[in-house]
TrEMBL record:
A Pfam short name: Acetyltransf_3
Record has Transferase as a keyword: yes
PROSITE patterns: GNAT
Protein name as it appears in the record: RimJ/RimL family protein N-acetyltransferase
Database matches in Gene3D superfamilies: 3.40.630.30
Residues of the N-acetyltransferase domain: 12-173
Alphabetically ordered keywords of this record: Transferase
InterPro entries tied to this protein: Acyl_CoA_acyltransferase, GNAT_dom, N-acetyltransferase
Amino acid sequence: MAQYRSFETERLLLKPTSEEDAAFMLKLLNTPSWIRYIGDRNVHTVEEAVAYIRDKVTAQLQRLGYANYTVIRKSDGEKLGVCGLYDREGLEGIDIGFAFLPEYEKQGYGFEAAQEIKRAGIEEFGISQMKAITTKDNVPSQKLLQKLGLRYSKMVQLSDDAEELMLFEFNLDDPAVHANQ
């Protein structure tokens, strides 16, 4: 497998999610908040988690050089959640997203990881526009996106049967972005 970039913050290591993360991903994909806010991926065994990683994460990583990153706490090696840049079906452009195990929420890890992934997207991968989607009732996610500098744009549906989602956008060329720096 090719060598892909990992990233580091003061407290965190962000490494490309790989098949060795399958047990962790199985746990994360089946948390109540993942199912409520992101959706049930119907991954119920470690083998299905390996297939999910191979089909969704590794395929995009090989195609674009970036994808989903497992967020690891440096102090003890604990896997806390995921954060990444996604080429999401039904959404034009690159989507920044994040999810954490419930016991690691509200500790600043989401912002720390997402801020580094946003920086990497801009500086390492040349992404000047980012989008994010969230459900109307996921207020913590909305607040984190706003803190990252994304602004609410409009309501969207990714498919005919999907619920309406809030679309947030960031554009490096937007004069408002530079006014806030």
